[in-house]
């Protein structure tokens, strides 16, 4: 029985989002009544030993959170000082492809870069550097992406992407020519 | 349990019987290897593998070595015997190179086994990758100022052509057909037609040939129609609406014309 | 003092990745010696009350993970894309090449393994065991890969990849033996 409390604690700890009694029951291979008892006991134990985390219930789901007071304050200091990382090489390259070819979809970005770029694109969206620009007419009608005003500001492009640096040796290439060349090279790298 | 590849029963046009007999006949030059479809031998073997419960790596390796040898012999027969390049490959050198590679691979295979052991010793390690669900939301990340030149640098790296292969590699540089297929398709998405000659102007002979193969591929898939008014004339390419015999006849003309052009 | 244990526990709980003593000290507004003591006490407390989580030290950083046994097993059922689940022989080999040679590109990995490694590399990225590390300056500027902190955690590398056993040296005897075997095979068909 006390084992189930440890199991529930571990489940709540590794979960990426709050869990329902059903979720807990399935993962713990226990019935929901037992889960209810384990949740109660976990709450008591955490409170009893002045733990830094407490059990919380949010719209019928359970999760752990930093206890109010010093633990929660320290946790929010930690979040605030999360070091701001510059753009990774992968992010910069993806951004370059979007900036020079926009609008462009994820399958094409991945093809040109030679590696799946879904996570990188997602990160750029979250940072507000790119956003959606309709859907393409190629297979599967992929969502297209373009750079944003935030992008212009971060890169100091007051006149928008027209102010992007020319590419040495490809000065006269328009977006289509550039695109063709990138696809050819991607195929050569295969 | 699994059996040697040598007793694989074959039923080919040119030969019917066990694989080892086929090998013996080929090696004694009593059977023309050119007549033996290696693919069918492979398919027959795969068929047998499917029936077997477990895969015996020794037996499979043996089969691979034998089939690789057959492929090599056959390719030597098919390629012009005067080809110097093939003659230049020294068997000792090739074996030494292959052995060095296999030895290197062994080291990493050992390392992989080491990792597997470590994993076993570490046990099941489960943790959350990412922040806690109920943690206060992270303040929006402040973006550091960036230089547009870094974008251009990243782009130029992508535009860097793969280096020309060195002399160590005997194989000639190949030009892939696929980019031309993609490129022609893209062209025809925005326009109804284009002129082949204009699209390949300035390209190398090899690229020219690859582009032409790409065009044939699109014709075969009935995606485009091609027209050539006269021998050596410009080749016009249009989006295909209907496909049929007329189209194939046209292609044959084009192929004939281009062959003469190459000659 | 016991408050600091709760604070450290909360910090380790909310953090997205393992924290250094320095990270903990800044967020907790305490000195590193106090942090060390708090970490020790936290470890004792978690062990003493049969908690579902344990303190984990990886590459000089600290994190929490599900305790071995039923808690870890239940937690792994919960995560559908476990970093370590289904590590095939091919995946382990590829990881070994990356761990020892990082940063290293796909062409080099494929050369060593003798087969294309694209799908395996993609799978390892999705599991978070490797990530991109810029582009190399060799043939075709391939994307380079390196192992991640998740890799260190999954394989229990307290000292990071530096703690891996050294790669076996080049063994000429092995190469000679292999060459002899190749000659034997070649002789078979002469």
Would you give an account of this structure?
With 190 residues, chain A is an alpha+beta fold. In chain A, 53% of the residues lie in helices and 13% in strands. In chain A, strands 3-5-4 form a three-stranded antiparallel beta sheet. Chain A is elongated. Chain A starts with a helix and ends with a helix. With 263 residues, chain B is mainly α. Chain B has a three-stranded antiparallel beta sheet with strand order 3-5-4. A two-stranded antiparallel ribbon of chain B has the order 1-2. Chain B is flat and about 70 Å long. Chains in contact: A-B, A-C, B-C. At the A-C interface, helix 1, helix 2, helix 4, helix 5 and helix 9 of A face helix 1, helix 2, strand 2, helix 4 and helix 7 of C.
Rg from alpha-carbon coordinates of chain A: 25 Å
Q: Which stretches of chain A are low in confidence, meaning pLDDT under 50 for 5 or more residues running?
A: none
Mean pLDDT rating of chain B: 71
* Element-level helix/strand string of chain A: HHHEEHHEHHEEHH
**Estimated structural class of chain B:** mainly alpha
Distance between the termini of chain B: 57 Å
List the helices and strands and how they pair.
The complex is a heterotrimer, with two copies of chain A (190 residues) and one copy of chain B (263 residues).
Chain A: H1 2-14, H2 21-28, H3 32-48, E1 53-58, E2 61-66, H4 70-80, H5 89-101, E3 104-105, H6 106-113, H7 118-126, E4 130-135, E5 143-147, H8 149-154, H9 175-189
Antiparallel strand pairs in A: 1-2, 3-5, 4-5
Helix pairs in contact in A: 1-3, 2-3, 5-7
Chain B: E1 9-11, E2 16-18, H1 19-27, H2 38-51, H3 57-78, H4 84-88, H5 91-122, H6 148-158, H7 178-190, E3 193-195, H8 196-200, H9 205-220, E4 224-228, E5 235-239, H10 245-262
Antiparallel strand pairs in B: 1-2, 3-5, 4-5
